[in-house]
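Quick one: structure for this chain?
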Amino acid sequence: MSTVKQFQVTFDCAEPERVARFWCEVLGYAPAKPPGEFTSWAEFDSSRPPEERGAWFACTDPTGVGPRLFFQRVPEGKVVKNRVHLDVRVGTGLVGEERLAKLEAECTRLVALGAVRVELLYDGTDSCIVMQDIEGNEFCVD
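Got it. Here's what it folds into:
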């Protein structure tokens, strides 16, 4: 049986580069190198037919540890809750008020980037904050 060594997470979205750059800021990722021999994404896009320009974008973890994120344009908008979502893990190992303070600080940073706070889930010990990215995709600050 083979073992998967790498995977990428793919987002369907309306504006791939815009959503990718948001997630770069959230996770400390960087835009992936443009395809082929192109020196920039703008150069790559200008080489494509008009209807294919801006159809996809990718970003990577500069440390090489996290998965590649791939963003592809789709014609339909988001209409229901995600079946899979990312957890942005900033409170690992913390509990109670200390954990909540760390999550709230990250939530404030992400709202400034365009995210939307949806709901705080807190039971006095464990907590997470449900949020949405700039196109309404749910994720958690955990």
